[in-house]
Amino acid sequence: MASKQLWQWRGLAEDGDPRQGLVWVDNKLAALECAREDGVHPLALKRRAIRLSLWRAQYSSELMQQLATLLQAGLTLSESLQLLAEQHPVPQWQALMQDLARQLAQGQSLSLAMQAWPEAFPPLYHAMIQAGEMTGKLDYCCAHLARQQEQQQRLNQKVKKALRYPLMILLLAVLVVIGMSVFVLPEFAAIYRTFNTPLPVLTRWVMAMSSAVQRGLPLLVCLTIMPFILRPILQRSPRWQMLRPQLWLALPMVSGLIRGRMLSQIYTVLALTQNAGIPFLQGLESVEKTLTCPWWRSVIHQMSESIAQGSAIWQAMAQQTVFTPLCKQLVRTGEVSGSLDKMLENLAHYHSEQTHQQADNLATILEPVMLLVTGVIIGTLVVAMYLPIFHLGDAISGG
């Protein structure tokens, strides 16, 4: 897809009716040729901008679900893609589905045509569609793939929400403290200096903290901006990409969410490929391609190498610390009993439910805790500012 461009043409059909369409091609001449192949005399041709943000996983999973429904209704694959292209609200997705339908008309398989669109269809899609084409259960594979992607997206969103909420509350508390220390407390300090009376201990401590914040304000600003500057640099660092997930797994309250989300994704993909009849090693390859984190990909790759060398699946899992004892026990039971696909489904469901519950519990626990911490901080500052007012009467009467 990297060399293809999105073109929109307008023209007249052979009967004189106005027509327009979108097409993914390499250049302008190819776009004109595609319009003529559709029986249209092109009158205008314009290149459309491509928005990478529109290659959403939501659109991919919705396409699979709708495709499964149309195939189950008796439509052919090419007809289904054409119908979905007409109904899709995003132009570049319309052109993509029309391009897939055109490739099918030329005798190419859907799985092979999807490989040209890695931005829209991850490697798991190719493997599942290929399995559906080989087994004759394309509608079944599309439906299961859409369901798996939808569940995974909901789980990822819940985990991100559970992790972002305390960080946002903590950042808000820090900004309030800095704002009051820089803009509010100095005004009160100037007023209190005019009275010849000692300040309470709490007020003196807060005033000292305000002075320290004012002196170190440039350093605080640099520390606040530094993560935004370092983030794109660290994202390109292979060493940081390998270190970051290990740091996440070392945090006590966060490790359960991260581990559960990743294990749920791994077992869901493995169960999906096993139900589709894909060999386990090939399923691990699909898992490795779907993971974006290099460290987790290395874990799956080491596991694949151990299995390829003759180790049992549960033994390969035992060599990796990320897998829990329950994982090894159920996988070993599945290997012995011949029901590995069922055990993988159970593990995927278990880790998904556990992660959902942990995310809900974390939000339930952290919400009052963070509100309490924020209230204590702001309340302490307010009390420290107004506490000397109670002593002003004594100071005035003494004067």
Automatic annotation (TrEMBL):
Keyword Metal-binding: no
Compartmental location: Cell inner membrane
Domain of life: Bacteria
Topology term for the membrane: Multi-pass membrane protein
Domain Type II secretion system protein GspF: 64-186, 268-388
PROSITE patterns tied to this protein: T2SP_F
Positions of transmembrane segments: 167-192, 212-234, 369-389
Coiled coil: none
InterPro entries: GspF/PilC (IPR003004), T2SS_GspF/T4SS_PilC_CS (IPR001992), T2SS_GspF_dom (IPR018076), T2SS_GspF_sf (IPR042094)
Keyword rRNA-binding: no
Keywords of this entry: Cell inner membrane, Cell membrane, Membrane, Transmembrane, Transmembrane helix, Transport
Family assignment from sequence similarity: Belongs to the GSP F family.
Protein name per the record: Protein transport protein HofC
Encoding gene per record: hofC
